[in-house]
Amino acid sequence: MTALHQPARAEGPPRPPARVPFPVVDEVARHCLQEEEPETVHIEVHLPGRLDAGRLRTAFAEALRRHPRILMREVPGRWYRRRYEWELTAEPDVEVVSFPAPGRDALREARTRALAEAPPLSLSPPIRVEVVEKAGPVEPRTSHGTVLFLTINHTALDGPACLRVLATASELYGGQDNSPVAPPVRTAPAAPPPPEDTPSNWSRPARVAQGTPEPSPGNGMLVTELPLPHRPKGSPYTVNDQLMVTTALTIAHWNREHGARPRPLRITMPVDDRPRDATMPIGNGTRLVEVPFTVDELAVHDPGRMPALLHRTATRTRALKALPRPQLGHGASLLTAPWAPVAVRAALTRGLRRAAAPWTSTTLLSNIGRIPYPLDFGAEAGRAHAVWFSAPARMPRGLTVTTASTAGRLHLALRWSRALLSHGDGTHLRDLFEHYLHTTEVTP
């Protein structure tokens, strides 16, 4: 690929790199950074074939240039500055793509790095791409091929934005059209129905009950592949609603097993309204809404009540998505206004976060949905047949559920704080999730 040639200037010094103040989401995340639990988003893309190192590095370098908002680093500054700023760079400061040595444990070690080592904000871009060749019987269905691990510093951008950059890189690498598939057309009511009686967002929701904590800090993770849940044709609810109900019933069951007092649940759900084509804004672009569930809805489950629960959940999610709301609410906008130095506002934000911990939602369900891009890397590497995401799981939530669908399969990632759960706990939660997902497959 040839570099883009810029016309020579007749006179004057070169212009300094452009600077962009941190948006609200970036600044709140920057205030609350914790070294022991890095705020990383991990994306794991499984391909059937092999990738050429030189071609892939070239494709990623060009993809970064085509999405220049990802080429940024934090501007260093004094404690008394009023804003954090991003500095946009013309080229990467570091080589983004690396090829760790293959081996039997390479896949597990790459997953561990994705949770434990965030790309630094001081170097552009704040992402890392590791290419791992599978060796040995790693997974029964996909024991050979290549896995791309993308690790994102969540202070800078989110998973869907990075996936957009990956789609551009795959198109440049393989020469295949990676245009996004149009989302399914669904019949929706002209206006959201009026909200029903639901638990107040001012009430204290249930917490995920303590399991078996591990002595090491940070996050643990488990990924698995499941069948997409069946949904009768013309159903008023979506797969997202089925996943929402599944998550709520899973946690309610877990809490009953661990003797927790029944409380209403609230599940945070990211909503992303951005286009998926090449014009997609790069950064943290989702807004967060909270879906409530009553104690009665989540009591010992009667399969005959499932259709009503799915319908009520669909009504709530539609109404919440339709409400205009800032990404993190109005309070976050006030905290990030430059009325005081960033160090002062950071201390205040961390204090308020600790004070508000009992009112934080029970968990987060991030459903990416059907991967909109083919992620086709050409004849030798092939098309992605599995894509996993995981979101940070810092306390007080301590557990996040992330789902995506590829090639007609559901790819589930459970991620937890080791201060709350162990790998054995994660395995049990996965089994509960699979059971309750099946119960949402109601028939007409």
Give structural notes:
By secondary structure, the protein is an alpha+beta fold. It has a domain of 156 residues: Chloramphenicol acetyltransferase-like domain (Chloramphenicol Acetyltransferase, 2-Layer Sandwich), CATH 3.30.559.10. It is built from ten helices and 14 strands. The protein has a six-stranded mixed beta sheet, with helices on both faces. Helix 3 links the parallel strand 5 and strand 6. The longest helix has 19 residues. The N terminus is likely disordered.
Which spans of ≥5 residues are poorly predicted at pLDDT below 50?
A: 1-11, 137-142
CATH class identity of the domain at 19-174: Alpha Beta
Q: Structural class from helices and strands?
A: alpha+beta
Could you say what the CATH architecture of the domain at 19-174 is? Answer: 2-Layer Sandwich
Features:
six-stranded mixed β-sheet, 444 residues, disordered N terminus, alpha+beta, globular, Chloramphenicol Acetyltransferase, 10 helices, five-stranded mixed β-sheet, 20% strand
